[in-house]
Design brief:
about 350 residues, binds adenosine-5'-diphosphate, binds magnesium ion, Rossmann fold, about 30% helix, alpha/beta
């Protein structure tokens, strides 16, 4: 467990979510007839732990493995390697264990439509999970109506409607109610507000904050939007090509990013403050393909500080000098052999 999150939690509290060495590769066909199969290194050894009641924001460019990580955590796809435990119970792939996991952890996806059956009314969609888990119909219905009310949808008006009869923002509120209907301890959001208009997005974010307080939830919040992640997160984890490059308390990470990739991401973030707005994009182009990722540090091909050691050895997550955060960069390790290691960067 990282020092960061031990500090952030009360003494002796056990982690709500614990992930160790999680790994997932996809085999894909090579280009051209008879070409050998290739391997996509989607998630390459991710570890973190999260205390109850906290929100972990997960950021990184498209394709860095956020959704694959989410699917692994939810048991939707099997991991090649690694361990996940939720509320002290290990996730394994047998049906009973997955069913137990569903009660502890639920997920809200980006596409509010895709996750709702078009033939089920909103009420039936929300009641479905509890019914599968043996909650009697009357109780499940009462729970559904309470939740609809709580997410800002009047049950009298919305319970009998179909998904296509409500707006995108309302549909996402339905998905949130549906996720909460099993009374989970952990909720995982994968770009859940990304498709919404800005004004609706902030309302839904505020709703999520309130619900977290009220139900004592722990959140995993995936987004490519750094502003949104800053707004909602206690701890932030930055991913690059399937790996964690930095993790730490949100305020530390945003104020004093330690990893060159985190710095570049933040510098390209549209600032609310015009004084801090940069004109030049400090990071350009796309990340390299996760088929054949660069040796050593995967960020080195885009890093302004890359040195030979960066291609030779993979940097481990170490405490960054900025305090509180941990980052995987040879610059932060004075013994790494990087010529600039331990020096203050401009
Ligand atoms: N089922 C799959 N088969 C092959 N490649 C996949 C599959 N799912 C994801 N990938 C690849 O894994 C990498 C990570 O994808 P993903 O987890 O969706 O990233 P993100 O959510 O951060 O955009 C990408 O290169 C993607 O193309
Ligand atoms: Mg994704």
């Amino acid at each position: 467990m990282s020092a960061v999150m031990q500090e952030a939690a009360p003494q002796g509290a056990a982690a709500m979510v614990e992930v160790e060495g999680l790994r997932k590769q996809f085999r894909v066909r090579g280009a051209g007839f008879g070409a050998p199969a290739k391997v996509v290194h989607a998630v390459s050894g991710v570890s973190f732990s999260l205390q109850a009641g906290q929100t972990l924001g997960i950021v990184g460019e498209s394709g860095c493995g956020k959704s694959t990580l989410a699917r692994l955590l939810m048991g939707l796809i099997p991991a090649d390697d690694g361990r996940v435990s939720i509320a002290g119970a290990n996730l394994s792939q047998d049906a009973a264990s997955l069913k137990a996991l569903r009660r502890r952890m639920q997920m809200v996806f980006q596409d509010s439509f895709a996750s709702l059956n078009p033939r089920l009314t909103i009420e039936d969609a929300i009641m479905f999970g509890p019914r599968v888990h043996g909650v009697p119909p009357d109780e499940a219905r009462a729970r559904c109506h309470r939740l609809l009310e709580r997410v800002g949808l009047d049950p009298a008006r919305f319970a009998g409607r179909y998904p296509h009869e409500v707006s995108g923002g309302q549909r996402q509120r339905v998905n949130i109610a549906r996720a909460l209907a099993l009374q989970p301890q952990v909720v995982l959001f994968d770009e859940s507000v990304s498709a919404l208009d800005k004004s609706v997005e902030i309302q839904v974010l505020n709703l999520l904050r309130d619900l977290k307080e009220e139900f004592g939830l722990t959140y995993l919040f995936i987004s490519h939007d750094l502003n949104v992640v800053q707004y909602i997160s206690d701890v932030v984890m930055v991913m690059y090509l399937g790996k964690v490059v930095e993790i730490g308390p949100a305020e530390v990470l945003y104020e004093r990013p330690a990893h060159p990739y985190t710095r570049a991401l933040l510098a390209s973030m549209p600032s609310m403050d015009p004084q801090r707005r940069t004109l030049q994009a400090p990071i350009s182009g796309d990340p390299p393909s996760p088929i054949d990722p660069p040796s050593g540090c995967r960020f080195r091909t885009r890093c302004p500080h890359a040195a030979p050691v960066c291609g030779e050895r993979e940097p481990a997550l170490v405490d960054a000098q900025s305090g509180g955060a941990r980052a995987a960069c040879h610059l932060l390790d004075t013994a790494s052999g990087h010529p600039l290691a331990g020096k203050e960067l401009s």
